[in-house]
Amino acid sequence: MERAGIQKLIVVILILLIFLLANVFHFQVHFENALTLQQEMAFDVKISIWRILFEPIIGPLLYANRSLYALEELPLALLWLVVFYMVHGLVGIFKLRQGRKKSSVEMLLDLPLFLGICFTIFVLVLFIPMPNNTIVNHSKDTILVTTHAHTEFSHDGLISQRKMWEWHKKNGFDAFFITDHANHKKSLQFAQDQKNGKFAPNPLVMVGQEHSGTNHMSLLGLNGKFETKGMTDKAVIDSVHRYGGAVIINHWFDGKGKGKELYKELGADGFEIENSGKDLYYDRNIFEKLRKFCEKNELTMIGGLDFHGYGRVCSLYNALKIPNWESLNDGAKQQAILDILKSGTQEKIKVLLYKDRPFYQKKYVWFRPFITVINYFRTLNIWQVLSWVFWLLLFQFIGKRIKRVFFPPRTRLIGLALASAIFIVVLAIMYYFRGVAVKGYSEIYTEYSFLLGPIGLALLLYALALAYFRFFKPKRTTAL
C-alpha cells in the first residue's frame, strides 16, 4: 500500500477510535460532592466555544493540566514523547541503505530542539491561561466561594489582584477570599476599591491571610488593622475571632503540622478536607480519619482551591447555601459566609470536585500517560468529537500541501523550536518587569524570569545556529 493510502487508513482508524471511546465508553464530566462521592446534579459543566473549535490543540493541554498528580504526570508524558521521537528517528535511520551516519548526527543535533519544544509545552500547560471548562450553577440559593487564593502580593503568587478577580468571575464564583502569605493590607485596599465602585461588585472580594504557624491556616474576614508577627497560634486564632473572622486549617494532610486535635483545642473553626494546589487527591485513609474527626467535633470541612495564578485550572468549588444572596449588601454577604464557616456543620456547605476521569492512586505513574490519553477521548461530547474529525480531515486533505509549501520536512522542527524559544524569552521578560513592580512582596516573578530567560535564549541561539549551518551557510566548492 502506498504511503498516502496508509495515512488515509490511519485517519479513518483514529476517527473510529475517537467515536468508540467518546460514545461506547463515555465518561460523563461532572461535579462530585467530596464528602458523599455522589454527583451533584444541580451543577453543570460549561465548555468554551473556543475550546470546541480548537479541541485537538486546547483539549489535550487542559486535560493534562487537570491531572490528579500533574507535577509527576505531565513531565512523564513529555518524556514519553522524547522516547517516541528517538524510536521514530532510529527506525528511519535503520531503513536507510546509505547516509546512516549523517542521519544519526542530524537526529542527535535535533534532540535539543525537541527537548526545548517539550519544555515549552510544560510551561504552556502550567502557566498560560486557556479557555477551560467552567461551572454552571442551577441550584437555588447557593453561591460558590473560594477560601484560599494567592495574588502576586504573596511570595508564591503569579497573578495580579485584578486578574484574580477576573479569573474567579470567569470560573463562576460569587465571592472569594484573597489569602496572601503574611500580608492582608493590599487585599484590604483592593476590596475597598471594589466597595468604592472602581470595578464590578460581583464576584465579591473578601480579605484574608494565610498564616504560617505550626501549620498553614487561612485567617478569613480581616477587615481592619491586624498583625500576626511573633504571635502564637492561639493568640492569632483568638485575635481573628475577636474581629468576627474564621480560621481554617489548610492542607493539614500534607503531614507538616501538628496533630489535628491540637488545632481543635486552639479554637480553629475547621479544616480543608480537599486542596487542589498540588495533588487533587491525597491518601484516602487520612481523608476518612480527618472527615470523621471533623464530624465528631462539629468542625467545618471546606475545599481549599489554593490558587496561585498557575498550575491546575479550577477543579474545586465550595457551594454555600445563602438565601437571597443578591439582595444582601456587601457586609451582610461576607457575614453570611463567615457565619457558615464558623457554624461547624455541613448542612449549608458542599465541597464540589470537578470530575473528568476515574480516581486512581499514585502508583504505576510511569504508564499513566497512556491511560490518560484514553480517558481524555472518553470525556468528549459530540461537538468535541466533530472538532477532532474536522481537523483530522482538514490535515489529511490540505496538510500535506501546506507542509510542502510552508514547512519543508527539514525545517519543521527548527521552526517550532524558534517559536518556542521566542515564547519562553517573551514570557521571561514579562515576568522580569512584573517582578520589579511587586518587589518587596514576591520574588517568584524574578526567579522564574531568571530560569526561563537563559533556557529560552539558549534554545533560540541553538536553533538559529542549526538553521544557519543547515540552510544558509555557503557550501564549499572544489577547484577544478
Task: Write the SSE topology.
Elements: H1 3-24, E1 30-33, E2 43-46, H2 49-53, H3 55-65, H4 70-95, H5 100-127, E3 134-137, E4 142-146, H6 161-170, E5 175-178, H7 185-195, E6 204-212, E7 216-220, H8 233-242, E8 246-249, H9 260-266, E9 270-275, H10 284-296, E10 300-304, E11 316-321, H11 330-343, E12 349-355, H12 368-378, H13 382-406, H14 412-437, H15 444-472
Parallel strand pairs: 4-5, 5-6, 8-9, 9-10
Antiparallel strand pairs: 1-12, 2-3, 4-11, 6-7, 7-8, 11-12
Helix pairs in contact: 1-12, 1-13, 3-5, 4-5, 5-14, 5-15, 14-15
Structure in a nutshell:
With 480 residues, this protein is α/β, with parallel strands linked by helices. The protein has helices at 3-24, 49-53, 55-65, 70-95, 100-127, 161-170, 185-195, 233-242, 260-266, 284-296, 330-343, 368-378, 382-406, 412-437, 444-472; strands at residues 30-33, 43-46, 134-137, 142-146, 175-178, 204-212, 216-220, 246-249, 270-275, 300-304, 316-321, 349-355. It has a 10-stranded mixed beta sheet. A two-stranded antiparallel ribbon has the order 2-3.
